[in-house]
Design goal:
The complex is a heterodimer of chains A (about 350) and B (about 130).
Chain A (H helix, E strand, L loop, with lengths): L2 E8 L3 E4 H8 L3 H8 L3 E4 L6 H16 L6 E7 L10 H9 L6 E5 L5 H15 L4 E9 L14 E9 L5 E13 L2 E2 L8 E2 L5 H20 L8 E4 L6 H8 L4 H4 L5 H4 L6 H10 L7 E5 L4 E11 L2 H5 L6 H6 L3 E2 L2 H7 L8
Helix pairs in contact in A: 1-2, 3-4
Chain B lengths: L2 H6 L1 H6 L1 E5 L5 E2 L14 E5 L3 E10 L12 E8 L4 E6 L12 E11 L6 E9 L4
Antiparallel strand pairs in B: 1-2, 1-3, 4-5, 4-7, 5-6, 7-8
The chains are: A alpha/beta (about 350), B mainly beta (about 130).
Chain lengths: ~350, ~130
């Protein structure tokens, strides 16, 4: 039996409201809020990046896991905003945790799916018996070009998962993947912002891959939508996951706890992992959880977890997701936001 | 900052590792070769809790190179639960609202970078301990 031994998250304190962005570009804020089911998003402080969010989330995960960092055999950090083009984020995280030097580390990149890729590899590496514990982390300070629709949703956050075979807070029931080459979103080398295919990001991309992964894992495990207590889909906005969930036969109470986008935005690689963390924050022993990520390019990873008794014992050792999301927020005006996100050109 | 110097100080900067004298138990941060209390030369690693209260601070309004985007920001001396005082930058807050005695906690943050193509330096900073 393998699964999650500990989980932790980090969400920046800063926020910007949709109205504040729309005001600058002369856009209709109510249309964006309704169309994206989004009210505000998190913004990283200038001294926060993917590495710092990953470390702080992983430290919380380690506290819940209660393990010796030297027992971690692998660290995988998924992100589309790694601080360096060449130099791993994973070494920074491993060193900060005290896991070096006997640890395998890799940085992963697959648009918004990179975090769940790390979780997938970590789980199966533990299952193979090669390592005792492995960390899978999804972290991003995602980019949205000024004035682009993505600027309203691209946000920052991280979730980290310590995977192991004992003292589980959630047991892994099964995994399944669904992957094709679909060019719905990309960022070329040296480009500051990604480009996307507009409406093409919907039906042939997000919808096809999420539903493909869901149908495949349901068929593989012979579990029905109504058998799950909770479900989390990737959240590029607040609309797509709700549409998809209802279409596949899930109900609002199943996705209510994991749907964070309306006040968090899209944390890219952190998105569905953060939704899973928020769900673990409320799940009771024995309850079943379905998590399905989505990454443009394109693919989905599906996971089924079952909460264990230990979840209640470690849950309150570190801050819950809703606490990080709802409390002590600091709101920014667009000028401050532009400075924080390095959107203002300054002399070299 | 020199890359090698930063790298040598990784245990302190990344993990808040101090040296605890094996003879008298005095904690030194950063670690020392000779205990300032008893002169002993053997130490064990002591990981600082990172939690403490603000002892004193100043607000930097004219920031040095590389810190301009954060100004105004506070730099303070924090008295840790471990009984020692360490210096650090205080972030994630309006510095005007800080007062001595405030509870703070260390977080892993970006300190500076060598321009747009150089190394990025990470270490601890302090943030208000508000439970998030």
């Amino acid at each position: 039996m393998v699964g999650i031994v500990g989980y932790g998250t980090q969400i920046p304190r800063y926020r910007i409201k949709v109205e504040e962005i729309a005001k600058v570009w002369g856009a209709d804020a109510p249309s964006y809020k309704k169309g994206l089911n989004l009210n505000e998003k998190s913004v990283p402080c200038p001294d926060e990046d993917t590495a710092t969010l990953a470390v702080n989330a992983a430290r919380n995960a380690m506290i819940r896991a209660g393990i010796n960092p030297k027992d971690i055999g692998a660290v995988y950090v998924g992100s589309e905003s790694h601080p360096y083009a060449v130099k791993p984020t994973g070494t920074i995280v491993s060193e900060a945790l005290g896991a070096c030097p006997y640890v395998h580390t890799a940085d992963l990149e697959f648009a918004c799916k990179a975090g769940s890729e790390g979780m997938f590899i970590a789980l199966h590496l533990v299952k193979s018996g090669i390592v005792k514990y492995a960390l899978g982390i999804g972290a991003d300070t995602s980019q949205g070009a000024p004035g682009d629709a993505l600027e309203y949703s691209a946000s920052a956050g991280a979730a980290a998962y310590v995977m192991g075979a004992d003292n589980l807070v959630a047991e892994l029931i099964d995994t399944h993947c669904f992957m094709t080459d679909t060019p719905d979103f990309w960022r070329r080398e040296h480009a500051n912002y990604p480009e996307h295919g507009g409406r093409f990001t919907g039906e042939p991309a997000y919808m096809k891959h999420v539903s493909g992964a869901v149908r495949a894992i349901l068929e593989k495990t012979n579990i029905r939508p109504e058998d799950f207590n909770y479900m989390i889909f990737h959240q590029p906005n607040g609309k797509f996951p709700v549409q998809m969930a209802l279409k596949l036969g899930f109900k609002e109470p199943q996705f209510r706890h994991g749907l964070l986008t309306p006040t968090l935005g899209n944390t890219y690689s952190g998105s569905s992992p953060l939704g899973l963390a928020a769900t673990l924050d409320v799940a009771k022993p024995g309850e079943q959880i379905l998590m399905v990520s989505y990454g443009s390019g394109a693919g989905s990873d599906a996971f089924i977890f079952k909460a264990t008794k230990r979840l209640d014992e470690v849950r309150n050792l570190v801050p819950l997701v809703r606490k990080q999301l709802d409390e002590h927020k600091i709101y920014l005006e667009y000028g401050q936001y532009a400075k924080f996100r390095h959107k203002i050109l300054k002399p070299e | 900052m020199e890359v090698a110097k930063h790298w040598r100080e990784t245990p302190e900067r990344y993990r808040l590792e101090a040296g605890k004298c094996s003879k008298c138990g005095k904690i030194s941060f950063p670690g020392r070769l000779i205990c300032p209390e008893c002169g002993y030369r053997e130490f064990v690693i002591h990981k600082l809790s990172g939690k403490g209260k603000l002892d004193t601070f100043t607000i930097i309004r004219t920031a040095p190179s590389g810190f301009e985007d954060l100004a105004p920001y506070a730099v303070g001396i924090v008295e840790l639960e471990d009984g020692i005082k360490i210096l650090g930058q205080i972030t994630d807050c309006d510095p005007e609202t800080l007062k001595t005695g405030d509870k703070l906690v260390a977080k892993f943050r970006r300190i500076n970078e060598d321009g747009k193509t150089g190394m990025i330096y990470y270490a601890y900073k302090f943030v208000p301990d508000v439970g998030i």
